Amino acid sequence: MKTRKSEETRTRILDAALNIFRERGFERATMREIAAAAGVAAGAAYYYFESKEAIVMAFYERSQAEMLSLIAEQMGKNKLLEPLLRAIISTKFEVFAPNRKLLGALSAHADPEHPLSPFSKETAAIREQDIAFFEKAVTQAGIKLPSNLTPYLPRLLWMYQMGLILFWVYDRSAGQRRTMVLYDKTLKMVMTGIKLAGNPFLRPLHKLAAELLEVIYGDEAALDRQSKS
Amino acid sequence: MKTRKSEETRTRILDAALNIFRERGFERATMREIAAAAGVAAGAAYYYFESKEAIVMAFYERSQAEMLSLIAEQMGKNKLLEPLLRAIISTKFEVFAPNRKLLGALSAHADPEHPLSPFSKETAAIREQDIAFFEKAVTQAGIKLPSNLTPYLPRLLWMYQMGLILFWVYDRSAGQRRTMVLYDKTLKMVMTGIKLAGNPFLRPLHKLAAELLEVIYGDEAALDRQSKS
DNA sequence: AGATATTTTTGAACATGTTCGAAAATATTT
DNA sequence: AAATATTTTCGAACATGTTCAAAAATATCT
To answer: Which residues of chain A does CATH 1.10.10.60 include?
Structure first.
């Protein structure tokens, strides 16, 4: 049986850790320090978290849960793609803002094998939830793309958002203004791009793009097809 | 005075380390193991290298030196942009191939503060050498772009190449075929893009693109200008 | 309630990156 | 060559993430 007290201890350790992470950064925080701040022995932290990095993962999951309802709420109001995308992306910025630097401990890992990588199997559930938001936005706004591109659009939008967040995490301009300007400008370009993508004039580009996306996201059988053309 | 013997010890440690890195990966290799394989005490490794990661940096520098002459040689023969770019990028793949996985220890760091990041000040010299190659390629091929985009082209090509290499490092398809197909297709697209970029038809896009690049690469004063438009 | 099982906590021990003072080897000066 | 200075090597010690067996606390069963 899982007691309330146990859950509370876990939370106390997580909160203590986040405080110290925010103060001193992920690297310089020590597990003994975190445990002490939570009023437990060092070993206890490992009863609740597999590793130091697992604490960051728990933070990630907690943030995601918080965003889930916020984003859903924000999205309800709108029918246009741009405000829908803004609802998703801006909410992320807002929720992550107090822990922006800590996100570096997450987003720094490009390696899909690394548990904290945005591409790992450990973060798959979160990633899929996120992609589902973009899928919902696309559907809700009634976006029509060539059928060979449609399945990729949510993932592309997710990648776009990951890129923005990555840029933001390491953006050292005051108040991360640089990211905000970039966000504004690129979102407009994304919107224009999506509008243009429907144009039959661009048929030859559609095929190119679809092939490219198949190489990136497809299985190895798809690769055989593409490596010949 | 720097003796030949000292230089030889350093090389022995570096080589031993690379062997073990290749066998077991960066993480699982221990400094004691490396030192033992090089026939020295653990502390000696730290006389020659500041840290375990500094060994990877030394590998990076050694590879860069090797590529410098190879690329220069390859580039001499050509006057067209596509083969010039291929000369740079393919040489990188070839030189890095035996240590592809080790590159993960480098490219995994998005944080520009991290010494091993491709964006750090520690790797600035290498990065600038690389960008100079792309600059030379662009000049040598006589590429003409709108003047507000010209200064960014070498950096954009460098980014493109970094993206390819990153994809390659974590590409688990047999023989990294996926990357090779991607390389083929995207290089063609880059070439088409550059040809099209010269077209006066696209004047409005030029301005957009230049603004965007200024936000990314410019100083904060440039930001002020852009945040108003 | 007392016995037994389960969950939680502890702190010592371990592995590994790293530091550091002293010893050894080598170079320079007298 | 002896004395001195410099470079190189050593290995013990340290910090920190992590493991683990035992103890303590708590829950469940009889």
So the answer is: 1-49
Helices B52-76 & B4-28 angle (0-180, nearest 10): 100
As a CATH number, domain B59-198 is 1.10.357.10
A189 interface with B at CB cutoff 8 Å: yes
Is the C-beta atom of A200 closer than 7 angstroms to strand C? no
- Global pTM value: 0.94
Q: Which residues in A lie closer than 8 A to residue B109 (C-beta atoms)? A: 108
Scanning residues 36 through 55 of protein chain B, those with a beta carbon under 7 Å from any atom of strand D turn out to be 39-44, 46-48
Residues 45-84 of A with CB under 7 A from strand D: 46, 50-53
**Burial class, A187, CB count within 10 angstroms (exposed 0-12 / middle 13-18 / buried 19+):** middle
Spacing of B9 CA from C25 C1' in Å: 14
In degrees, to the nearest 5, what angle opens at C-alpha A180 toward C-alphas A179 and A184? 115
- Please report the pLDDT score of residue A16 as a whole number: 98
Question: What DSSP line would sit under B125-136, residue for residue?
Answer: HHHHHHHHHHHH
How far apart are the C-alpha atoms of A210 and A148, rounded to whole Å?
6
Q: Does A111 touch chain B (CB under 8 A)?
A: yes
Give the orientation angle of helix A52-76 with respect to helix A81-96, to 10 degrees. 150
CATH 1.10.10.60 at B1-49, yes or no: yes
* pLDDT tens, residue by residue, B15-39: 999 999 999 999 999 999 999 999 9
Contact (CB<8Å) B212/A111 = no
Structure tokens at B207: 């301005």
The boundaries of every CATH 1.10.357.10 domain in chain A are 59-198
pLDDT tens readout for residues B85-134: 999 999 999 999 999 999 988 877 889 999 999 999 999 999 999 999 99
A58 CA to chain B: closest CA distance, Å? 21
Provide the sign of the torsion angle of the four alpha carbons B76, B77, B79, B82, taken in this order.
negative
CA–C1' gap, B7 and C22, in angstroms: 24
What is the distance of C-alpha B220 from the center of its chain? 26
Instruction: Say how far A132 CA is from D25 C1', in Å.
Output: 44
d(CA A126, CA A97): 18
